[in-house]
Amino acid sequence: MSEPFRVAVRYSGPDHCALAVVGELDMVTAAELRRVLQQAVATYPSTVVDLAGVSFCDCTGMSALLAASRRAKERGAALRLRSVPYAVARMLRLTHTRKAFCFEFGESGLPLPGDGATYGPPTSRPHSPSVVFR
């Protein structure tokens, strides 16, 4: 069983907001994610969304992320995704929407999805990256 959905503000300052998302991004939770992300990108010049705790993502979850990315670009703000898990990386690949986002390096120091990256299943090693490059 996955953790209950939640979006927590990890940090906010005058120019920056960092959010952590946990749980499943689906038709039940996408509206809440959309609301929080839209508010963040409308308020802060820079927003980082840590997705390490996301266990599932469907098209409505991806739609919420894409809407926030569009809104950020409209107002000249930055929206970056961090610690992208396999569930989200797979949706980015399947929907060909990877280029709609900017990515931060994960805790492992490995680059997150970029041109030419392919995705594999998550590894079970401790401290492994969220996205496996092959």
TrEMBL record:
Residues 19-95 form the STAS domain. One of its GO terms (molecular function) is anti-sigma factor antagonist activity. InterPro entries: Anti-sigma_ant, MlaB-like_STAS, STAS_dom, STAS_dom_sf. It holds the Pfam family STAS_2. Residues 114-134 are annotated as: Disordered. It comes from the Bacteria. Belongs to the anti-sigma-factor antagonist family. PANTHER family: ANTI-SIGMA FACTOR ANTAGONIST TM_1081-RELATED, ANTI-SIGMA FACTOR ANTAGONIST TM_1081-RELATED-RELATED. This is Anti-sigma factor antagonist. It comes from Streptomyces monashensis.
